[in-house]
Every structure is written in structure tokens, then in C-alpha cells.
Amino acid sequence: MLAAIASRLPRITGAGVVMLLTAAALLMLVGLPLLYVVLQAIFPGWSRGELAGAFGLFVPLLSDPALLGLLGNTLRLGVAVVAVCALLAIPLGALRALARVPGGGAWDLIFLIPFMIPPYIAALSWMLTLQPRGYAEQLTGFSASGFLFSFSGIVFVMVLNVFPVVYFAVSRTMMSVGGRYASAARVSGAGAWRAFWRITLPLSTPGIAASLLLVFALTIEEFGTPATLGAQAGYKVLVTGIHERFADWPIDIPGAAVLSLLLVMLAMAAFYLQHWLVTRRSFVSQTGKPAAVEPIELGLWRWPVLALFGLVGAISVGVPILAVLATAFTGTLSGGLTPENLSLRHFEALFANRGGALQALSTSLGLAIGAALLTGVLGALVGYLVVRAHLRGKGLLDLLSLLPNTMPGIVVAVGLILAWNQSWWPIQVYNTGAMLLLAYACLLLPYPVRYASAAFRQMGESLEAAARVCGAGFFTAFRRILLPALAPSLIVSMLLVFAIASRELVASLMVAPAGMRTVSTFVFGQFEQGSPGVGMAMSAVAIFTTTALLVALTVFSRKRLPIAG
Amino acid sequence: MFPLKALAFGAGLLALPGLAAAGALTVYSAGPGALIENLAADFTDQTGIEVNVFQSTTGQVMARLESEQANPLADVVISASWDSAESLHQEGLLHEYLSPNADTVPDFLKSDHYVAQGVSALALVWNQDSSVPQPADWSDLTDAAYRDQVTMPDPAQSGAAFELISGLLTAKGEDATWSLMEALADNDMIVPGPNARALNPVLQGAKSVVFGAVDYISLGQQAEGEAIEVIFPESGTVIAPRPMMILASTSMPEEAERFIDFVLSEQGQARVAERYLMPARTDIEALRPTLEELTLIEVDSEAMNAQREEILTRFREATGS
């Protein structure tokens, strides 16, 4: 297959080699663990090196009537979260891109924070806030456990976790589409609304569709929220079924592998739907000419708009963070929110560094930066390969780059272990920190690839052609022409990768080498051992450190990072 | 941009330590984390042998062992589920060793291939600030006073909770056990997941009682000032011993045996006691009620595990979870 790719590569100096390396990296990073999961599903004894009983598990598992229920619940949850996300985040993103919203770039930073709160911490925070005798009831006498432990409650918490994906995609895409075409429409006599509905929104379709696809994949793959709230709501999904097979003795890895393949197929269906949507017509809207976006002045409307942004910020960021802080700063949970119960003991325990808390923090930050850079570079190249290269099999590469998003973290982790923990590898990667980097890069590669390929779809090919006519080679053209045009989308996606990698839990639990802890495994351990206070203290430290790091980065390179607005 | 990138990349590389120290002993342990960390540090102090610890839940530890079968890395495994040790032994994966320090460990807590590190028991945990009276026995919780106030760990996800169901089945018989479960479910008991998830709502007061909590976690929290009471029912409860074992695939059996010896030494067992577990050795003082003080239900684990699937299915039917 590699040879086939090589023979069909565009004939630009150096490009062939780069593209070949890119395809090889993608196959190794994503294809290899996926292959091992497939093999494990087909051959139940694969992890022991046995090939007996091929396909033996498919029939009994797939004919289980309970499975249909899980599948239906998963689909229903995915569709609901996508719909609510679209309703919430598309208006927010459009306003941010096209209008002068008071606060401007600050909102981008604020809406990045939900991503840095691990989903299970967010779910736990909402539980601590809304359940009877929770923080809300202690402060205002209001509790809403009926709502929280229901389908709507699960959708509510999940939307708050993932809506930034859509918000960022919409605002970045519309910023780059926005200006000129809408202005042209206005000149031709269209009103502001008409220009938006007929020009800006349709031209932004690739970016929006790609981000909604990510949300769907993220939702059906997410474990923390359904596990925390769903168990009480009696709402089970495929992922909880997969995790149950890992949760207690005896472990059923082959069964989990079969169920994971189902999830992967669900996501593939969504992928083809999205693919059909965005390749039906051309969305080329970027010619490389500088297009200053002239933001709409909101006038008196700025107050309701500000109120909307403020409300979403308060609910998605304020409530979880306050609940985390409340738990971290009170001595005991049963003592509640009283002045006598105020205590620093959880932080003291943390900084006494008993469980290697600070080491865990630096490990997580280092790995998150590494993952962001690795996936950023690879994502840009894969995005280019998928959109621009004229070669057969690129659809497969595109699909491959999305699949990790649909595979539960635990399955990717098992695939990675099966693939890398083999004595015949010349370099032993397993049981080193590199496994975590591989796991994060594999799980998070879809973000840069989605964002980059959506950006390439909007970019006219004439830009590159012009560069080539002027004598630029592939590397020069990529660095001087494509990369700058790509930067806004790519950097946002890298920030998302950083944010998610800094708190990834499920795969970290599986592949972290003995003796190494990350923030999330540390926090999870504290909860498991009944020290929610220390766990929340660590979460607070981690959330504030990562946010501070992003703010510093933004301030440091204010002109270069579009996130500063 | 580029100097920044280079800097960040450097930071990324620095955070990746190289290969795990050669010659170090690798220990996979179920929680509590502080216990295994203290044990490992003390052991290194005493012997100079480095220890790499992977600490997680029993499920995670076992999932990792299972997926590493092609090339096992762990030398010593400590689990919170006695049956997991028996299963590994049946598969021939365990190294035979009986520590000389295990002399005062009761016979039912040791075999030629594995031995208990410590023992926990299952209990009722009651929030003192709640509006419901303090319960004394399992069946009290079917009373209308406890409507919507009870949580229980899921026996499918908590080995200890499964042990409790097995114990009740042994002591009360099938009919009485399942009608107890149905009555609890009718009283709106929730089954929210593994142990910590059943306990947290009770700590904050959203619920009032845990049916079948692992005792040492709650005893530790009580010592830290949480307003909870740990109650061992008079009608009897079950214990959950925590087996330690050496994998047959280990490349350092001698060091692994020394580690087991150390955990069973007076110093090691004192560390176990510190975490409110019962030490496996009867001659070490515990900070909590011990085997002699509790009313225990004898469980035929082997028979119960043989019908694990049926029991779990029946449990799900009874509780509607």
C-alpha cells in the first residue's frame, strides 16, 4: 500500500518523501493499535498468542437483546448532545466572529476552560452542587437531583463539556470566511441577516460539520459523565458496557474489543454523513488576499449578547470551578459550607508531596505540550495529504485519522499495549513515558486533522500554484504560504489537544509506566481511596496551572496567536 | 514562534523519563495508594532495591495483567479480590512461595502461592447528621424511614460487594437474600457504581447510609473528621482479604520474595494497620475491630464464583439496576 501511495504522490520536490513519512506515521500511530484491537476481537485468545475460536464472540455478543438498548441509548445521547451543542455554540461562535462582542478574546480563553476540567470532575461537581444537601441547597435551598440524574441532566453536563469544540470551529471558520463574501453580498443589496444565512453560514459548513462530527464522536466515546450520572439515572450506553468488562474480575478484553468495533462503526457512519455534506460542493473561500473582517457594531444589542456569553461562561466554567474549590477548601464533605469547616489541609497534604503530586503535574504538562506539538505537525500534514494529494486510499487515511476519536480511551490503550509490549521491537517503548505520548497523540490526532483539513478545503489551490510558479519548493510553499493561512485553525486545535491531554484519564490509567503518575491518575486515585478533598485540590491546582499557562502563552505572543482576538 | 516551539518541545522531552530503572522491582497494587507507597519506600530504605509501583483499582490492575500477557512486566501483584489470585493460580501464572513471616497469618489467609497483605470487612456507613436513625443490621434499611436514603456499591464492579451478596446467600439462603434486595430496591436504594461512588453521596448527605461499604476507607475518613459511623451488623458480615502474589514470569524472584517478607514483617504490617485495615498477622495490633471481634459469615467462595454470572443477573433483576 505504501508503494501504491508513493507512486501516486504529487511530483513536488521533497513532498513525496514527506507524504510517505506522514502516511507511515499515521499507520503506525493509529493503524497499529486499531489492528491489534480488531485481531483481539476476532481471536479471543490473541493476547495469549492463541488463534483458536476465531469470530466465536460475535454471535453471542451481537445477539444479546440488551445490546440493542445500549446502542439506541448511545445514538440518542450522541444526537441530543450534537443538537444542543449546535443550538448553543453556533450562535455564540458566529457572534464572536462577526460582531464586536465586549470582552473579545477573553471569551475564547474562558470557553477553553471547560475543556480543561476533566469530564468526570465536571460531572462530580454538578452532583456535589445539585444533589440534595449539595452546595446549591446549602446556599440557596435549591436542589435538582431529579433533573441531574436523568437523560436531560446527562445531556446538559456533556454539552457544557464539549460545546467549545463547536464554538472554536465556528468562530475561526467564520472569521476567515466572513469579511469579503458577506461584504460582496451586502453591496449587492442583501441585508445583514440574508448575507449571514445565504453566504457566511453555508460557506462555513465544512468547519461546522467537522466540529459537530467531533462532538458526536466525543459523546459516544465519553465515559466519565455517563458513568457518574448515568448509573443513578439508569441510563447505560455502549461505553459503560465496555468499561464494565474491564471493571472487575474476570476481565473480558475480547468482549470489550467487539463492542468497541460497534462504536467505531457508529462513528464511521457519522463520518460518511459528514463527508457527504462537505464534499458535495466547493467551499473554497480563501484566496490569500488579506481580508480584514469588519466586525458588526452591536449597539444596544451588546448588553443581551454580553449577558448570553456571561451566562454560558458562568454555567460552564463558574459552577464546576466553584464546586471544585468548595470541596478542596472544606475540611470534610459532611461538614458542609460553614466557616468552621474551612481548611487548607487538603492543599497541605498535596504540597507535602506524599503521592508525588507536583511530579504528576509536571509530567502531565510536559506530555500535553509534547502531544500538542506532535499532533499539530502531523495533523497539518495529514490534513494536506487528505485534501490535496491525488492518490488512491486517501479516504482510508482520512477515516483512519478520525477513528481514534470514536474508540474509547481504554480500548486504544489496550491496543497500544498489545501492539507495543512485544519483545521483538528493537526499541522497547512499553513501560516508558513514551507510551503516554503515543496514547495521547493517537487519541487526539483527530482534532488537528479535522481542523486542518477543513481549513485546506477552504483554501484555494491557486495560492500554492502561485508559490510554485515563483520557484518555491514544497517545504517553502508549505511553510510560507500554507502554514500561515492554516495557523488560526491549527493553533486552536493544538490548544484543545493540550487541554485534553493535560487531563486525560482512561488511557493514562492503563499505559502509564509503573512509578509514573499524571494529574488525572493522581486525582482518580484520591477519589478511589476516599479522599475527595485532596483529589479536588489537585484538580484545582491543575486547572489553574494549565489555564495560567495558556493565558501566558496568549499574552506572550498576542499578535501571533489569533486566540487573542 | 519557533524558539517557543523549541522550548516547549524541550520541556516535553524532559518530562519523559527514560526507561524504567533497570533492576527495579515492579509492583502492581490495588489501593490504598499511600500504603503501597510507604511500603515501597520503607523496603527500598531497608534493602536498597528500587521499587516501581503501579497503583490503581483491582479491575485496572487485572486488565493490565491480562493485556500484558505476551510480555509480563509485573513482579509482585497485590489485589483487593481473593478470587483474582485463585484464578491467576489456576492459570499457572503464580510463583510458589510461602514467606516465613506468614507463620502467624491464619491458614485461610494463605496458600502456597499467595498470602493476604491485610483484610477489610464490609459494613454499614451512616451519616451522623442525617435525619434517619442509626441502623444496626442489613435488614433495617428496608424500613420506610430509609426510603430514598440508601446506596450500595455495584457487585459487578466491586469484588467486595459481590462477596457480601455471596455471604448473605450463604447465611440467609436464596429466598431471603433476594427478597431483601427487592425490598431495598422498593425502598429506592441506588446502586451507583464502585465503592467510592456509593460512599460520596452519603458523605455530603444526599443519602444517609451505604449498604456494604468497604470499611477501611470509611474508618480513615471518620478519623479525618467526617461525621460518619461505621457499623458492623450483628447478624454477621463478610471479609475481603487482599492477596499478594509473585508472578511466575518474574525475572527477580529473590527480590520479590524479600518484598513479600517485608510486607509481612512487623514494620510492614504496622503500615497496613495504619490504613485501618486488619493486618494479616494476628500478632500485630489493629486500629479497628479485628476478625475475632466481628461476627463473620463463612462463604464458600469457590461455589459462589462458579455461579457468578447467575448471581449478578439475579441481582440486576432484583434491584432493577
Describe the structure using short key phrases.
heterodimer, A: 565 residues, mainly alpha, MetI-like fold, disordered C terminus, B: 321 residues, 18% strand
Quick structural summary:
The complex is a heterodimer of chains A (565) and B (321). Chain A is mainly α.
Please explain how this structure is put together.
The complex is a heterodimer of chains A (565) and B (321). Chain A is mostly helical and 565 residues long. Chain A has a domain at 62-282 and 296-302: MetI-like fold (Orthogonal Bundle), CATH 1.10.3720.10. Chain A has helices spanning 2-8, 15-42, 58-62, 65-98, 105-116, 119-130, 135-140, 145-148, 151-187, 192-203, 205-221, 224-233, 238-247, 253-279, 302-329, 345-351, 357-388, 394-402, 409-420, 434-444, 446-457, 462-469, 474-501, 506-511, 519-528, 532-556. In chain A, helix 9 crosses helix 12, helix 17 runs antiparallel to helix 18 and helix 19 packs across helix 20. The longest helix of chain A is centred in the first third of the chain and has 37 residues, at 151-187. Chain A is globular, with a radius of gyration of 24 Å. Chain B has 321 residues and is an alpha/beta fold. Chain B has 2 domains: 23-119 and 240-279, Periplasmic binding protein-like II (D-Maltodextrin-Binding Protein, domain 2, 3-Layer(aba) Sandwich), CATH 3.40.190; 120-238 and 296-319, 3-Layer(aba) Sandwich (D-Maltodextrin-Binding Protein, domain 2), CATH 3.40.190. In chain B, strand 1 (25-30), helix 2 (33-47) and strand 2 (51-56) form a beta-alpha-beta unit. The longest helix of chain B is centred in the first third of the chain and has 15 residues, at 33-47. At the A-B interface, helix 6, helix 12, helix 13, helix 17 and helix 19 of A face helix 1, strand 1, helix 2, strand 2 and helix 3 of B.
